[in-house]
Amino acid sequence: MSSLTEKDRPIVQLLLNTGTCPRCILRFCCVGSQMLYRHPHKGLMKDLQEFLEKSQEEEGTVCLDVADPPCKRIRLEHREEGGDDLNHNGAIPRLPSAGDGNAAMESSAGNVCNVCLGILQEFCEADFVKKVCQKVNSADYQFTSFVFSVSLPPQLSVRERAAWLGVKQQMRNLGLPLPKDDIVQLKEAYKWIIHPQLSEELGVPADGKSLFEVSVVFAHPETDEECHFLATACPDCFKPAKNKQSVFTRMAVIKALEKIKEEDFLKHFPCPPSSPKNFCDALEIQCNNGAVFVAGRYNKYSRNLPQTPWIIDGERKLESSVEELISEHLMAEFKADSFNFSSSGREDVDVRTLGNGRPFAIELVNPRRIHFTAEEMKRLQQAINDSSDKIQVRDLQLVTREAIGRMKEGEEEKTKTYSALIWTDKAIQREDIAFLDDIKELKLDQKTPLRVLHRRPLAVRCRLIHTMKSEYIDEHHFRLHLKTQAGTYIKEFVHGDFGRTKPNIGSLLNRTADILELDVESVDVDWPPTLAD
């Protein structure tokens, strides 16, 4: 419904008399015209006064109908069956004259709305919009559109219920059925008003799918006081939470309102609600950009560098890590708040990663800068590579969140190639190890290694050694090149891990074997795409 009709007269009159703002009155009359809500507050008050002064036999309208998309509704009641809009004489009962409401109308023009607590009053004005935009501009984000979100004080749901019950009660007293069972959501009406103003001031469109969010958190000093009766009536709905200052959260209040009986609500809260003493406060104006994802491949050339920070019992063991050497440059360029590092598997601190490197991805949380050209990404890659001789990065590029799934799929499904330097306690000759080259698809049973048992569940994992190629060095040393199923524990395959991996190189050679050096020569995951130099 995009305009007021004679059927809305009782609702308009009753709500005006109790201190409800004109925009909330439009909401309770289920007016869906976005343009109406954008009219100035004073103009709407005048329109409502003129509407009430019209002949009750005439179906008046506040303004021309405007075609708008369907709006969301809040369902407050089940529609009452039976009855129509007429009394037994076929006419709409007459309310007190419109003139009797003039004083209430003039008073409500400067008072805090008893339903929205001022959200649809001063927080729709140009001064507040400029304040929001100043906050956005000072935060120095890159964005081409925005999505606007708002957090409202929990007692707004209580006041909205109280206003509805008050209207319902008065309509019954007048012998009128309730013409509507739903109203326009306050949040939706607020966005109808604020979106065009923000778009004009920021110079970009509002877009519900935008990754850049502008949010406003409203609070009110009387929240706990006004919601306290619900905690008494429905104690199960309100439970303390560690990260919440008050038990009266929006969801808890809504849950209690669904549970409380109408007669109990009417006993404890005035219907319609009384006028509040204070406007809401805009507690926080926040900006947040959706995460940006950067992927690439890294080579690790040091045998004294962990993939991620190595901290045991709160004490740092080594000064840096692969993760940090890469991310510190990305954090600085993207101006992000934090990051999350992931990769296709991981190597031990003393293992090098050679060949074409290991795929990795970094999620940059709330970045201020999000647009980078291919040339800028190349320069960023070069900066990372110039900063350390312990790692090198290649194929650095922006990717989507969905694309990272391809990297994770490869962790268990793909193959990896290793080179291991092996020592044996008994002397060996070339012919002693030659048979290893002929072994194909060797099945292993690997119980969770002792060295990772503190962070991995105890289990027996079946893994495959696809191929092996031996390279004799001397009587106690040889190099073994292996192509294995991803997830195979290579060190344990060499020394046996006290019999926890069967078979192993020691058992195959019938002697004690240990691993001196291990290199990852390739991680066969075809991701991310290779970039031209």
From TrEMBL:
One GO term (biological process): tRNA pseudouridine synthesis
| Localisation | Cytoplasm; Mitochondrion; Nucleus
Q: Where is the signal peptide?
A: none
Q: Residue ranges of the Pus10-like C-terminal domain? A: 293-524
Is Cell inner membrane among this UniProt entry's keywords?
no
**Annotated coiled-coil segments of the chain:** none
Q: Which InterPro entries does its entry note?
A: PsdUridine_synth_cat_dom_sf, Pus10-like, Pus10-like_C, Pus10_N_euk
Tell me which residues make up the Pus10 N-terminal eukaryotes domain.
113-287
Reaction it catalyzes? uridine(54) in tRNA = pseudouridine(54) in tRNA; uridine(55) in tRNA = pseudouridine(55) in tRNA
Q: Which PANTHER family match?
A: TRNA PSEUDOURIDINE SYNTHASE PUS10
Protein name as it appears in the record: tRNA pseudouridine synthase Pus10
Identify the species of origin: Hylia prasina (green hylia)
